[in-house]
Amino acid sequence: MHPDEHEQVIQALETLIRDTQATIDRAEVYGLNDTMPEDYQALLDILDNAIKKQREHTLAMLR
Question: Would you say residue 28 has pLDDT above 90?
Fold first, then answer.
């Protein structure tokens, strides 16, 4: 991938990270983390994977 392609992926992942974090925050406010633990865990997994992928693309872009 070219650096500009990595940058596009990084930006898309940033949007995913922010949106997912906002959803997690709302879920916690409404107690969905307790009433829907599987869905809450899925959100945490999405966030974790997006952060890892973003880090990978950032490192690849810097090489």
Answer: yes
